[in-house]
Amino acid sequence: WVICAETHYFLFYTSDILRKFNPDIKGASKGIGKRQTGFNMAVSGAKMAEIPQQIHNLIITMKNDSTVNFQNDWKLVTLFIGGNDLCQYCNDRVTLSPQNYSHHMRMSLDILYKEVPRAIVNVLEILEIEGLRRIKSDSLGCNLIQKQVCPCFLLPGEDSPELAEIKRINRDVQIETEKLVYGGNYDGREDFAVVLQPFFKNTIVPLDTDGRPDSTYFSKDCFHFSERGHADMATALWNNMLEPVGQKQTYNNFTNARNNLKCPTEEHPYIFTKGNSFPTTASDCSGSVPAWLAAVLAIVGLLIGWVITWTVFFCRDKTSKRKMMTSSLGMKETTF
């Protein structure tokens, strides 16, 4: 759903939306098999530790493509990884720790930052996997495969210490990712940006008209998304891309409706990044100061004025008392 270009009459993918604005974009995968993958380097079942190699493969593929101007063409890279790390965490807590996840994510982003010019990198926040426990079906694939694919989330009992631990690890991975992306490590170039797209952060399980989990959004294994689910994720990603940093939707409501697509505006005809989400403060040579600074200076001035006034009156009162004492002594001496 990120880079696929197989459009159906009721489905669409992120690359399909992008082609509405630029029909000449390159790299979308168009089918099954290595010759059809385009710039899609994803590998089924991969974990975070494998992403740096996928990044290297992507760079080599782009450089070897004669239709790509590697130095001047803008690139949109999307990283969506971590589900397999969480699902297998209980089998290898050290290798699949949130810290190692963050380490390999940093390695991947560092490679892109150092080697790829003119790029926007979407980092999709890992979803809350606990909701998968509610996805049920009588199909053979759902009954047999689901718990094998994600045992660490699906096997623990309700309210068990094991379930509480994996839920905490899920949130820790989200926190580590946020710290990395927002840490400022990739703010030093004007032609490069890393953006966290958080629509998976608070995952809502889609429901049918009877209020039960809607299995049509998931494949037969009750773990991976179906085509309908992929199309909905494409919409959510696109909408996140058109929302400013700090104002991005952190959940997906699973409506599967094309009319929910956001459109670029005349005021903001671009993908939002950290650099263009916040208004810049232009330098003002007129000598004016911000209102908050003026208020602070006024309060400080009042305090200084009060201190000076108190000091003057205190000294004057002290001097007056000394004069009175001196005068009194003089009168006593004269009388004596």
Automatic annotation (TrEMBL):
A GO BP annotation: phospholipid metabolic process
A GO term for molecular function: toxic substance binding
Keywords: Membrane, Transmembrane, Transmembrane helix
Sequence intervals crossing the membrane: 291-315
GO CC annotation terms, alphabetical: brush border membrane
Pfam name, any one: Lipase_GDSL
Stored CDD domains: Phospholipase_B_like
Record's protein name: Si:ch211-214p16.3
Species the sequence originates in: Nothobranchius kuhntae
